[in-house]
Q: What sequence folds into this?
């Protein structure tokens, strides 16, 4: 990034940085709401409360919502790696990411699988949980892959390699996997190859001359981008071209562009300002929401409520409100170990 050399420029940058962070929080909120909606729809798919049109909605959501999170992480990755080349810099970076990403990965995999085992729906016995060292369970693959990509980028920078080379390498791996070139029998390298391009594009955008430029676009332009991008993803989902999650780069990028445009609109108009709370707590909601949504779903079935819309609305609300209530409770009890390992190290935006 270009650093301004005078106080006026510094003031402009501070304002732009604030605007950027604000829309990023809204973008994360959009992403986490889609995560909860998607998992709620899938939880109802094979039940008497299956939502009409749920298959199309599922295809639309999964075409871009996880690439969106990888892209947003990439926006701050180069800044996080600023000191990687210094003595202890790589260790500092890895420990920071482990505290923020790997700790909740382990804790919440154990918590979720314990609940699933008690309910009799777990596919593996609890004694096999050690396998999460190389085989993530359910939605927790995201944290595993995000940590792996972040660590690989840090190592890349540690060896003095520049970010443009990482962007080129990530895109090359993506096309290699989509062309059928094998990367071995372990599934994680394939997931890294599919999602690393979105991190790389985030890094690319963060290093552009003015990464805050979209915040200066007119509201009309942003609305057109948002509606057009989401419509393009819907068309791809309708025709079956959306493909596997993350596998169709143009479709995912259309969804990312639409989400960014919508996030900027929300941040500039202060519309639905409560969404920023969801964005700031997106990781906590991500790891905890399925427990609350599943409990709500099973509770409704126990009392024989089968309305798809009651299940959908309640599942979404419980999946969002439940984790927020848990966060509040942990803060009241001053228990800081449920969603991350506390540290005095500087915390970077995830």
A:
């Amino acid at each position: 990034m270009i650093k301004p050399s005078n106080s006026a420029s510094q003031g402009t940058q501070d304002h732009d940085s604030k605007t950027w962070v604000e829309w990023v929080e809204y973008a994360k909120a959009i992403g986490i709401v889609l995560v909860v909606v998607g998992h709620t729809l899938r939880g109802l798919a094979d039940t008497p409360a299956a939502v009409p049109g749920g298959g199309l909605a599922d295809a639309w959501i999964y075409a871009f919502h996880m690439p969106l999170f990888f892209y947003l992480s990439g926006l701050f990755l180069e800044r996080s790696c600023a000191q990687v080349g210094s003595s202890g810099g790589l260790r500092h970076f890895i420990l920071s990411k482990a505290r923020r990403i790997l700790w909740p990965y382990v804790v919440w995999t154990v918590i979720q699988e314990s609940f699933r085992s008690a309910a009799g729906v777990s596919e593996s016995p609890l004694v096999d949980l050690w396998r999460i060292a190389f085989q993530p369970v359910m939605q927790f693959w995201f944290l595993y892959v995000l940590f792996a990509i972040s660590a690989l980028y840090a190592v890349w920078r540690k060896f003095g390699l520049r970010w443009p080379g990482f962007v080129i390498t990530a895109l090359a791996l993506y096309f290699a996997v989509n062309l059928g070139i094998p990367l071995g029998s372990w599934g994680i390298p394939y997931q890294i190859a599919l999602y690393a391009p979105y991190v790389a594009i985030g890094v690319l955008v963060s290093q552009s001359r003015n990464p805050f430029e979209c915040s200066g676009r007119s509201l009309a332009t942003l609305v057109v981008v948002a509606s057009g991008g989401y419509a393009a993803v819907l068309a791809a989902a309708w025709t079956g071209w959306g493909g596997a999650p993350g596998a169709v780069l143009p479709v995912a990028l259309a969804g990312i562009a639409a989400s960014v445009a919508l996030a900027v609109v929300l941040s500039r108009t202060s519309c639905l300002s409560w969404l920023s709370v969801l964005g700031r707590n997106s990781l906590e909601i991500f790891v905890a929401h399925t427990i609350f949504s599943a409990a709500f779903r099973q509770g409704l079935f126990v009392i024989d409520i089968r309305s798809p819309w009651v299940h959908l609305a309640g599942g979404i609300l419980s999946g969002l409100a439940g984790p927020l209530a848990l966060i509040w409770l942990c803060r009241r009890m001053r228990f800081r170990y449920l969603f991350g390992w506390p540290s005095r190290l500087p915390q970077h935006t995830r």
